[in-house]
Specification:
Elements (H helix, E strand, L loop, with lengths): L2 H14 L6 E6 L3 E6 L7 H5 L6 E4 L3 E4 L4 H15 L4 H18 L3 H13 L3 H20 L6 H13 L1 H12 L4 H12 L7 E2 L2 E2 L6 H22 L5 H61 L6 H11 L4 H5 L1 H16 L4 H15 L4 H11 L1 H22 L4 E3 L13 E3 L3 H26 L3 H7 L21
């Protein structure tokens, strides 16, 4: 069979399987063209089997068209080429983003990343309280600076600080729950860390301080408690379990916590704070550039979860985390990149509509719709978005080096949603201005980098077309599938 025949066969098959819009994946084995389909009901089986080159069809996990050895290897690339020629739409990009997300999820199933996911599951439930208390703390600071409502500010201070004073207990509770122990026992062991009476205890030649070790100490203490509890469940007779297991769990884990973990975790916590301050004080713009530029790839790899305990430790120590405003610049680069995609594809109304609907969320710091719906499936705009984030991070990092610390009193929000949580070592107005300047830098560089370097000429040719439903020959044109 000649090349033209192979192309004709592919062209005959495509409309009979529902068109390019209905195809989500293309592969072949020795004899079969294997297609992933969105809607199986669109396939016209009888007409397919009537084609001269088709020997039969098999409906399995994928829809399989039997073409025979040799023929299938030649028809498949022609089939893929026909699909690639169809205009790219928001639906296609969304499918491609979903495929990337699913692939990333499967790759993240390593022991280390599963451990990080457990760590994230411990701290994520605490974020609403961190946000609420952080905003109250910011409001209280503003009232104190203005000299307003002096009778109210002590109450606001209590509301803002109460949760942080006991955060170790909540971390211990969630840790035991996540690692398969009894949550209340994890909380009980972690509560030792914040108990004022530990000030009367000496370990490693020095008096302990209430709260020493913080969330890291609570995390370690609760994990230890889980293992002690599980050991007790195995060896303690069932008749004594209700008395012996909780007693030994709290006793053994508590002693190790007081005479070991509190001191070690305290040293680690101090080292984390000192390193973060040193990094931005000495590295400045360079450190901010690297952190802001690498955050989106870290999210893709699932490694950003390792930063959650670090943020919590910095908030507990200093009242705010200096890392989050820099990392938030990745979202600014993403917004700038999305606006550039919108400007560069004036004829692709489908993608532009997706951007218009996702952009407000992106501005408020919710970047997933833009990442998985636009930039990541397109490829190059994801890279240029990282460049925008790098420049935004460099801007904030530069001011940190100059002595103007910009931090966040809570974990979670970014973009404009972070403004109520911004705090620092200088005036509130100055701190907000620096953060806003970083966002503007991220927007601008993300836009310019994407506008000039985010597309090849071939990409513009393929993408800058109206979707099939807007074209006069709509019946002959189909959507591009995901991942092809």
């Amino acid at each position: 069979m000649s090349t033209i025949d192979h192309k004709a066969t592919a062209a005959a098959i495509l409309p009979l399987v529902g068109g390019a819009a209905n195809v989500t994946s293309v592969a072949h084995c020795m004899t079969r063209l294997r297609l992933g389909l969105r809607d199986r009901s669109l396939v016209r089986d009888e007409e397919l089997t009537a084609l001269p080159a088709v020997m039969g069809v098999v409906d399995d996990d994928t829809y399989q068209i039997v073409l025979g050895p040799g023929t299938v290897a030649r028809v498949t690339p022609e089939f893929e080429a026909l699909i690639a020629e169809a205009p790219v739409t928001a639906e296609a990009l969304a499918d491609r983003g979903a495929a990337i997300r699913a692939e990333r999820k499967s790759r993240n199933a390593t022991p280390f990343k599963l451990f990080l996911r457990k760590i994230a599951n411990i701290f994520v439930p605490l974020i609403p309280a961190l946000i609420g208390c952080g905003i109250i703390a910011g409001l209280n600071g503003l009232l104190i600076n203005l000299g307003w409502l002096p009778s109210v500010t002590p109450a606001l201070a209590a509301m803002a600080s109460g949760f942080m004073a006991l955060i170790a207990v909540f971390v211990g509770y969630n840790t035991a729950k996540e690692f398969g122990g009894t949550p209340i026992l994890g909380g009980a062991v972690a509560a030792i860390i914040v108990f004022p009476g530990v000030a009367n205890i000496e370990a490693f030649g020095q008096k302990l301080s209430p709260g020493q070790g913080g969330v890291l100490g609570a995390l370690a203490a609760a994990i230890l408690a889980v293992y002690v509890e599980k050991w007790c469940r195995r060896v303690v007779p069932a008749s004594l379990d209700v008395l012996v297991t909780p007693t030994l769990t709290v006793l053994v884990s508590g002693l190790v916590t007081i005479f070991g973990l509190m001191f070690v975790a305290g040293e680690i916590s101090t080292a984390i704070g000192d390193f973060a301050n040193w990094l931005l004080a000495s590295g400045g713009a360079g450190a901010g550039f690297v952190l802001g530029g690498l955050f989106l790839p870290l999210v893709m790899l699932g490694l950003h979860q390792a930063l959650i305990p670090i943020h919590a430790t910095l908030i507990e120590q200093q009242g705010f985390t200096v890392l989050l405003p820099i990392l938030a610049m990745a979202g600014a680069g993403q917004v700038g990149a999305a606006v550039a995609v919108y400007a560069r594809l004036p004829h692709n109304t489908s993608i532009r509509n997706t951007i218009k609907s996702a952009l407000p969320a992106g501005v408020l710091g919710v970047g997933e719709p833009l990442i998985y719906g636009v930039s990541l499936p397109l490829g190059r705009p994801f890279i240029t978005a990282c460049v925008g984030g790098a420049f935004g991070g460099g801007f904030v990092g530069l001011f940190n080096m100059l002595g103007d610390k910009v931090g966040s009193t809570a974990i979670g929000p970014s973009g404009w949603a972070l403004f109520p949580l911004v705090d620092g070592n200088k005036g509130l107005g100055e701190t907000i201005a620096i953060y806003a300047g970083g966002l503007l830098a991220g927007y601008a560089v993300g836009f310019l980098a994407t506008y000039w370097f985010g597309f090849t000429q071939q990409m513009l040719t393929d993408l800058n077309t109206a979707p099939a439903e807007d074209a006069p020959d709509a019946k002959q044109r189909e959507f591009s599938p995901a991942g092809v």
